[in-house]
Amino acid sequence: MNNQHIAILGSGNIGLSLAKGLAKAKIYSPAQITLTRRNVAALAPLKEEGFLTTGNNAEAVKQADIIVLAILPQQLNKLLDEVKSAIDPAKHLLISVISGVSCEDIRKYLGMEVQVVRVMPNTAISIGQSMTCIATDNATEENVNIVKAMFDSVGVSIQINEELMTSATALCACGIAFFLRAIRAASQGGTEIGFHAHDALKMAAQTAKGAADLLLQLASHPEHEIDKVTSPKGCTIAGLNEMEHNGFSSAMIKGIKTSAEKAGVLYKD
């Protein structure tokens, strides 16, 4: 545990999950983390756990070394206006989890050369299983390592080029919904062939989890694992071909591309 203080501005699902994950991993104590929200009363349970809470973003920034911006793109400019006078480029490291906002966008609006690291986690952060992508255009290696350690405590992180961050948003952040929809569809298929809905959902979810672990734990390729269960004239290949005839892979690819296009203009719109 270190002696830095973190201010998480905008304590919604991602911000709260990050705070809880950092405390659980004992990287930071609750007393080192300030959570802000317009409705401070909603943070009462976190305050009881030892986290600091406030509705004053500027005061939270003054007390912090690391500032996490965890709000919606359309709320960013107003928030930056609130905290601008409290930011010290020589002291502060900014971490942005905001879709479609570049490191340069933040510095340009603030009018100062503060270090900014852009991150894109997903909602699996709430169970310590996030896939988080990290990028920066001006942060030191030391600060990037600090950010990586933070997000490794709530899942897995990788550093990528910043121009790929909108793509990371589509594949990893939006991707949670895509894979959940695939599991839901599989469970509905299970119900249609005879299983009760709750059993079908459990079976589909565990099967999806097993498929993912085959790739992650064995460093295998999907087609290699698919080949293991597709015998000539068998039922697996018949089902796969039927799905492909109906555009399964094409629909997933098009959906990811569409989400990436939308993510790229959220802040500008």
Automatic annotation (TrEMBL):
Residues 6-99 form the Pyrroline-5-carboxylate reductase catalytic N-terminal domain. NADPH binds at N57. It is found in: Cytoplasm. GO terms for molecular function: pyrroline-5-carboxylate reductase activity. Keywords: Amino-acid biosynthesis, Cytoplasm, NADP, Oxidoreductase, Proline biosynthesis. The keyword NADP applies. NADP(+) binds at A70, I71, L72, P73. Residues 162-263 form the Pyrroline-5-carboxylate reductase dimerisation domain. Its EC number is 1.5.1.2. It comes from the Bacteria. It is an enzyme of class 1 (oxidoreductase). It catalyses: L-proline + NADP(+) = (S)-1-pyrroline-5-carboxylate + NADPH + 2 H(+); L-proline + NAD(+) = (S)-1-pyrroline-5-carboxylate + NADH + 2 H(+). InterPro entries: 6-PGluconate_DH-like_C_sf, NAD(P)-bd_dom_sf, P5C_Rdtase_cat_N, P5CR_dimer, Pyrroline-COOH_reductase. SUPFAM superfamilies: 6-phosphogluconate dehydrogenase C-terminal domain-like, NAD(P)-binding Rossmann-fold domains. Pfam families: F420_oxidored, P5CR_dimer. Belongs to the pyrroline-5-carboxylate reductase family. PANTHER family: PYRROLINE-5-CARBOXYLATE REDUCTASE, PYRROLINE-5-CARBOXYLATE REDUCTASE 3. Catalyzes the reduction of 1-pyrroline-5-carboxylate (PCA) to L-proline. This is Pyrroline-5-carboxylate reductase. It comes from Mucilaginibacter yixingensis.
